[in-house]
Amino acid sequence: MLVDSNPPLLHHYGALLHQPSDKNPQLHENHITEECQLPLIDLEGLKSHDVSYRLACASAICRASSEWGFFQVVNHGISSELIKKMRREQVKLFSAPFEKKQTSGLLNNSYRYGTPTAAHPTQFSWSEAFHIPVSKISDQTCYGEFTSLREVMEEFSTAMSNLSKVLAGVLINNLDKQEEAAGDICESSSCFLRLNRYPACPFSPEMFGLVPHTDSDFLTILCQDQVGGLQLMKDSKWVAVKPNPDALIVNIGDLFQAWSNDVYKSVEHKVMANEKTERYSIAYFLCPSYDSLIGSCRESSIYRKFTFGEYRSQIQEDVKKLGHKVGLSRFLI
After folding, report:
1. b/e per residue 175-210 (b: at least 16 CB within 10 A)
2. Which helix (H) or strand (E) holds 161?
3. What are 102-156's pLDDT values in tens digits?
4. Are strands 32-36 and 237-241 parallel, antiparallel or unpaired?
5. How many of the other CB atoms lie within 10 Å of CB of 46?
6. DSSP output for 24-89
7. Which domains does the chain have, with CATH numbers?
8. Beta carbons of 24 and 130 less than 8 angstroms apart
9. Where is the Fe2OG dioxygenase domain (predicted)?
């Protein structure tokens, strides 16, 4: 007997199973051939008095962004104590009854679960999340009874913002872009913090915790627990990312791929559900303002210029019509 979860994911997923057969393809097959160890970069190198160490660290960041689209960082400046405090508050928040999360206006009404647009099981994510604009994190009225969450969230988002700007600066400098570009890329008021929970799922290992996708930002910094489940596309196959308790994961988003004219790669990734254990993660999304123009930093761009707002609108339209994101291919010249 399957037990439904908080939130009621099983109910929504079950409804998809009753779709006509032509709209209900078989669940995806998992073609995992190996567990990968992402490039591991010690950010202490960026602070070294030795120029060669600084250059080597920056080079490693840029190389991983081109070859993998993903890397891990240690000595990143976010203390383990802060991460533990953030995780405790996150677990407390998600432990609230579903009705309270859904209807109480918590965190700027940012709560979401499952995939409302899913037309069949392969489009369904077995997860729940709060996708919070950074601009709202200081708003006391967003927290309700979860008053202890605000101070921790403010400290955590500030630390993630500072780290994202350091990494973006390295990637910008590598392509000799004029300094004014950094201000557009590092517009923290348009950024988001996403608190994720992936409940234990009776359909694992076939079930997505988060469907395959690329991120629609400049870059993402992920703080995950040790349960595992993150997978990425490498050399045309899915590989599982081995959790590292001391590291944060960084991945390139669509906007950096377009801006760099495909020098940096926005790589497809997904989360697989776990049959017995719930999983938590926190992601920081570095986004520009909605009217920022995304153009290539080099001549002979393969993408036409577009604003972040235009890009988001196109994604939302595609998801509504097609059930999935199309992304950068919409903007090829």
Report:
1. bebeeebbebbbbbebbbbbbbbbbbbbbbebbbbb
2. helix 147-174
3. 988 999 999 999 998 888 888 899 999 999 999 999 999 999 999 999 999 999 9
4. parallel
5. 19
6. -PPPPP--EEEEE---EEEGGGGG-SSHHHHHHHHHHHHHHHHHTSEEEEES-S--HHHHHHHHHH
7. 32-288 (2.60.120.330)
8. no
9. 187-288
